[in-house]
Amino acid sequence: MDFLRTLLSRFAALLGLRHRDRDLDDDIAAHLDLLTHEYIASGMPEAAARTAALRDFGGVTQARETYRIERGFPHLEQFARDLRYASRQLRRSPGFTLTAVLTLALGLGANIAVFSLLNCLLIRPLPVPHADELAVLRTDRNDDTRGHNYTFGSPFLRALEQHHNGFESVAGYSARPFQVHDEAANVRVPGAMVSGQFFTMLETPPVLGRWLTPHDDREGQANVAVISAGYWKARFHRDPAVIGSTLTIANRPFTIVGVMPASFVGADPVYRPEIYVPIWAEPVIDAPFNAIADGYHTWWMNILGRRDPGVSLEQANAALGSLSDGILDQSIPDAKWIKDARDHHFRFAAEPGSRGWSFLRDTFRKPLVVVFVLCSAMLLLACLNLASLLMARAAARERELATRLAMGASRMRLIQQLLVESLLIALLGTSAGLLAAPAVSRFLGAVLIGGAGDYVMLDPSLDVRVLAFVALVAILSTLLVGLVPASRATSKSLNDQIKSGSQSVHSRQHRLLPRLLMSMQVALALILVFGAGLLATSLQRLRGIDLGFQPQNLVNVRLELNKQSRDGEALVAWYHRYLDGLARLPGVKALAYVSFPPMSGAVWTEDMHTTISHGDHQLYMNCVSTGYFNTLKIRMLAGRDFQWNDSLASGLKVILSERAAQQLFPGQNPIGQSVTQTHGADGKNVLQVIGVVGDIHYESLRKDAPPEGYTAITQNTDHKPDYVAVTRIEGSALPLATAARQLASKMAPEIPAPVLTPMMTDIDGSIASERIMAMLAVFFAICALLVTAIGLYGTLAYSTARRTSEIGVRMALGAKPAQVIGLVFRENAWISIYGSLAGLVVAWFAARALASVLYGTSARDPLVLLVSVLVLVSIASAASLVPAIRAARIDPSTALRAE
Amino acid sequence: MGDNKSEVLQGTLDLMVLKTLETMSPLHGYGIARRIEQVSGDSLVLNQGTIYPALLRLEQRGWIKSEWGTSETNRRARFYSLSRIGRKKIAEETENWERIAATMARFLSSSN
User: Fold this and answer.
1) Strand duo A653-657 + A685-693: pairing
2) What pLDDT, on a 0 to 100 scale, did the predictor assign at position A183?
3) Is residue A777 domain-shared with residue A891, that is, in the same domain?
4) Is A28 in CB contact (< 8 Å) with chain B?
5) Which residues in chain B are closer than 8 Å to A10, comparing Cβ atoms?
6) Cα(A92)–Cα(A149) distance, rounded to whole angstroms?
7) How many domains does chain B have?
8) Chain A partners of B56 at a C-beta cutoff of 8 Å?
9) Same domain, A789 and A738
10) Which segments of B1-112 are extended strands (E)?
């Protein structure tokens, strides 16, 4: 009780400090007055009485001090005073302050930006209750070449829905843009097909209406939909009557039964569906395809599950494994397939799924980690630099600090004060870093997902985790950075040396630590420059790969005709008319249709064989129209291109790539010969080879060009196929975009507007991770060089300033300017040399870690190494020369007088 | 040296102030200091200034209260008196002290 009252009283005092002090002064004045009066009354003269009164009273100042300590929060007041002092000190040297703050902001800002990306992609769990109970299912085989498989066919889903020991619920999830009717035409809206237990699994109640349930996920019942809060706001303007209204998806009516809250994002952190429909709606959504009817042939959804409470992941995983055989038998009608699966130890498995599942994760995990390591190196460099600068600065204030120590300040107190200065710098640097970070991470995110597809979005907004990380890093760096210089500057031995004279001739040990720090910086800078050089060279080599075609000035016009009414020959005629319409534009040089443009992410393979091919060969297929090879500038090696009149009646034709021709017809001329499609739909399709073209890269830049085959769109038996019009243009793509949309809306007003993407975007997107790594590495290398240069310059400038009198003496004794330059320069020369050597050694071994991400570049490329060393040495020399030259200009007489 | 002395005296000074105010209230700082000197019979040399932190402590705890008034020499000064809580605390603190004193006495006599 007493304690509480005391605390409150102290608080009150904090707010009215002056008032309390004045009260005390009044009291003391009255007291002294009375004492004096007493002494006067006993016969003393006034002056003597006053002195006696003061003596009786004791120390007035001491009384005031003790009073002040009792009155408020002395530590708080002390801290406030330290802060004011520190800010005054920092304002007095703006150059130093700016450098220090910028250095820290750079290091921290980059780290925050990258960490928030990492957080959003790899760490942050889905915003659902008990996200740690979620698991992602996959299938394992012992011949998995491309890593684990996370896609399932619908038979597996149905079997798992019935038997899921260890799991409370299991749900399928498949995301793709839906065609939704809006006013006159169809538009693309990001959507998802989910199975019955999906919403119960994610335990997030709707804000309006109800969830989708297993009752809805049945044949004939699946014409209901749940929409997101964003879509409700954008399209329905938050009208509560949306429940029960109709949404036309893929030209069929769906009834809206619920609205999900804004915090619900589905099961994929980078894709936010606006519309959810049951899995059984798939034949409608995917028309004319039907993945459900394709059964176990088509694998098209991800499956997640929520573990039973109390069941660990290992137990659930084991339970799933034991179910595998049963599910195989239940779902697959093909005995040969089952046997093949069993031979390869096919089993279901579960892995942690609190963060949902995204295909981006696997692709970008490694590059993001590499980038994070780079960032940490950069932050370390920034801290080292800051420590050196602070150390140099504290050394410049030795005189002042020693004086204060001599006057009775405790060492703790001085260290405290210096730490507050570092704290202030850290605060400013962190705030600056925090301000810049969101923009940087958005930029990085955009590069990262550049070619990843529509509606993929990263949300690297700051959340608790990131802020906690930031705070931790900032505090740690302050303490590390500030403690060492502070304790050094106030050490007793220093004190003695100061007293002995103004020439600061320090012991070797004393100068060791700053030099060590600087050398470490130089080493780190060299490592960063070397890493950047390697990554940049690798990227250049990637960019320089001959793709087999000319990607510049190509634009992909993506059309979606699968929900409109035309089909067969009428549709081909439509496509032909559309192409002719586009060809009339002045900027269009050449154009043609293709099913899957290169590097678009899609893959279509077929097994083919011939009489002389020694078995099946896998060809990467594509369906093209006349002029495709001309548009892409692919070399025509033999035979002819397709014509518009190559109808089905004239017999199936195929054009082979050079590699395919060599594999299927070794040593022979393939023109005119026949190729058989091993798993042809109608028995076995036989195609006649009419041409051979050059190989091109199909899937990625890194993979070599595979054997390829091309069929004609005029001979495509698929229903309502979608094609991409690849267009070679001259000048801006804007007129093409307008024309494409206008023409499409005139010729088929019900289809969604065509989407235009430059070919280079897809190609850049396929090397997004390499681009990010190279970009960041180069950025950090430049920053590292800058920071190190500033550090070298700054520390040398400080130490030279302290040696002014020594230099003055030397010059007075006859030293030439060149000798002085050499004297000063030597100090940094050794730092640079030792640092570079250390850096070289570390880089030599550490570079191996990069080997797996490099293309066509050895991790020990001697040219890159040489250039890195040269760059570092020249910048270090330049930085060190400036103070050296300035030292040579010192006027000896002024220097000596300044002492 | 000076620090040590006042720390030891802190507790005793507080009790002395309370006892003084118990019998003579209200009193200003000078009056309390003079009275303490009187009662302790000059065996205690008190730095009169140390009264004020003690008075502040007691006031913060709520054991005494203050009022503004005018001193004999027509100066503005604060006059202190016991609060209700303070009155109760005197008995408590006195008991405390007597217990400590008795223990100390036992110690010192036993070592003889």
Assistant:
1) parallel
2) 78
3) yes
4) yes
5) 60
6) 62
7) 1
8) 67, 70-71
9) no
10) 27-28, 64-70, 76-82
Task: Give CA–CA dist A613/A631, Å, rounded.
Answer: 31
Q: Are residues A797 and A849 in the same domain?
A: yes
CA nearest neighbour of A803 among A791, A815, A789, A787 = A815
Given this model, what pLDDT does residue A504 score? 47
A736 located within any domain: yes
CB contact under 8 A, B29 and A9: no
Q: Is B71 at the interface with chain A, CB within 8 A?
A: yes
Q: Is residue A573 situated within a structural domain?
A: yes
Residue A124 placed within a domain: no
Is A224 in contact with A257 (CB distance < 8 Å)?
Answer: yes
When CB atoms are compared, the residue of B60, B71, B78 closest to A6 is B60
A94 token code pair? 């703006």
Between A9, A24, A37, which is nearest B52 by CB? A24
CA-based Rg of chain A, rounded to a whole angstrom?
38
CA distance A629 to B60: 93
Q: Which of A301, A334, A354 is the last residue of a domain?
A: A354
List CB contacts (< 8 A) between B73 and chain A: 30, 33-34, 37
Q: Does A100 fall in a domain?
A: no
pLDDT at site A2: 76
A494's tokens: 């220093």
Distance CA A356, CA A132 (A): 10
| Residue with tokens 């996920």, as numbered in its chain | A217
Per the structure block, which two tokens stand in for A462? 């700051």
Q: Which domain holds residue A319?
A: 131-354
Q: Is A206 helix (H, G, I), strand (E, B) or coil?
A: coil
Same domain, A743 and A773: no
A774 in Cβ contact with A532 (< 8 Å) = yes
A806 and A736 share one domain: no
Domain of residue B98: give its range: 2-111
Task: Tell whether A577 and A667 lie within a shared domain.
Answer: yes
Q: Are residues A335 and A202 in the same domain?
A: yes
Q: A37 contacts in B (CB within 8 Å)?
A: 72-73
Residue of chain B whose Cα is closest to the Cα of A4: B61
Asked whether the ipTM of the predicted complex exceeds the cut of 0.85, the reply is no
Pair A792, A827: CB distance under 8 Å: no
Specify the higher pLDDT residue, B82 or A481. B82
- Reduce the DSSP state of residue A521 to 3 states and report it: helix
Q: Do B56 and A30 touch (CB under 8 A)?
A: no
pLDDT bucket at B42, cuts 50 / 70 / 90: low
For residues A160 and A205, membership in a common domain is answered with yes
- Residue that finishes a domain, picked among A700, A729, A753: A753
Residues of chain A scoring pLDDT < 50: 502-504
**How many domains is chain A built from?**
4
Give the pLDDT confidence score for residue A898 in this predicted structure.
62
As a whole number of angstroms, the distance between CA A317 and CA A164 comes to: 11
B63: domain CATH number is: 1.10.10.10
pLDDT of residue A575: 94
Task: Give tens-digit pLDDT for B25-34.
Answer: 788 888 888 8
